[in-house]
User: What shape does this take?
Amino acid sequence: MARLSSLSFFFPAYNEEAHVEEVARQGLDVLPRFADDIEVIVVDDGSTDRTGEIADRLASRDPRVRVIHHRPNRGYGGAIRSGLASARREHVFYTDGDLQFDLTDLERLLPQLERADVVIGYRTKRADAPRRIFIAWVYNTLIRILFAAPFRDVDCAFKLFKRDVFERVPLARVRSNGAFFSPELLLVLRAAGVRIEQVGVRHFPRKAGEEKGATLRVVLRAVRDLLRLRLRLWLLSLR
Assistant: This one.
């Protein structure tokens, strides 16, 4: 199994007081199996519960933990952008703060780094409500058709990057700060020639709190941003 010299792990957390400590502690316990030097970054995206307080307490007790506070809330994409921009190690890995992924599945991604700059997970079996699964299927199908992109699960929050990717392709090229951030990031990287591999990972039901990101407003905004990107890339191809 490949071993990394250093790894930044971050996760966005919006009102995840029931999960934030366990996700951070799993990072501290599990990730040293895969990297010699790690840091754990909690992106508190304007939480109104005790998420930020719990994260700060963890950081005060372990120098490997850092916390980024957003005031006000910047949205999911804004939280991912902050995490990627603040990472200091050679590789960057992120997942969500709701315990729906198992960090040991990072082992599945590492071998692909020999031939890729970015390795992304796809959920082999989604542990979500049928409505959410259907929305995701439509969304992924639309992206494959409009962009001729082979991605199986653009919104799967289990992604590993070589950090120097963002020196070649600055995050400023990704314009969305909403739910479309992750798909746009992959599409922009792919258009720039970045090598991306996909690996199946497990997905588990949420144990506490509420699902976020599948409201009609969020979905419509993501579709709007998708169409804007398709137009922008088409115009660039004509130059």
